[in-house]
Specification:
Number of helices: 1
Helix content: under 10%
Mean pLDDT: 89
Strand content: 35-45%
Order of helices and strands: EEEEEEEEHEE
Strand order of the largest sheet: 1-10-9-4-7
Low-confidence stretches: none
């Protein structure tokens, strides 16, 4: 995204059900511009509706620089307090799975199970030096591409009781 006067940030606030009051505050906002002409992150793939709305979305915070090792994956618009996991792989696919689309393919690696919070948000700090991310076809190596997605349980949506977020493709910077 080119930073111009037309760039806008959008924040979403939601309640926990009927009878609650929607309140929101933004604190400690950082906008980081890393100029890497051939690297960075791009969202791709469609999300599918879930039990709380239009579907789960992925984002990231930090840098796509391997040297900085400071990238955090985020997923939001998820059902509250449900298990899920981030996973990654070298390829982009579009395969039906559960109530959604699996967007990451090839040699897929899971990053461990986690729980969404009370607001349907989850995050995971990546360790690019870990064995999972430092070797293999989707390794965090400058110039290499790694695709990430979040899988989660969603029994209240019916159907398969599971769904997936959209996905993020990262081309790693030095």
């Amino acid at each position: 995204v080119s930073l111009t006067s037309q760039v806008r940030l959008r924040f979403i606030a939601s309640d926990l059900g009927s009878g609650s009051i929607v309140e929101a505050a933004v604190d400690d906002l950082r906008v980081v511009d890393v100029d890497c002409a051939t690297c960075g992150a791009v969202g791709y793939c469609s999300t599918s509706p879930n039990s709380v709305g239009n579907g789960a979305l992925m984002a990231y915070f930090g840098s796509t620089s391997v040297a900085s090792n400071s990238l955090e994956l985020n997923a939001f618009s998820l059902p509250a307090n449900k298990p899920g996991l981030f996973y990654f792989g070298p390829n982009q696919v579009s395969t039906p799975l559960g109530n959604g689309l699996r967007c990451v393919g090839g040699q897929v690696t899971r990053l461990g199970a986690t729980l969404t919070d009370n607001f349907g948000f989850v995050s995971m700090m990546l360790d690019l030096n870990s064995p999972a991310l430092s070797s293999g076809p989707a390794a965090a190596i400058p110039g290499n591409v790694t695709n990430f997605q979040f899988w989660y349980r969603d029994p209240d949506a019916g159907g398969a009781g599971q769904n997936l977020s959209d996905a993020i493709s990262i081309t790693w910077c030095p």
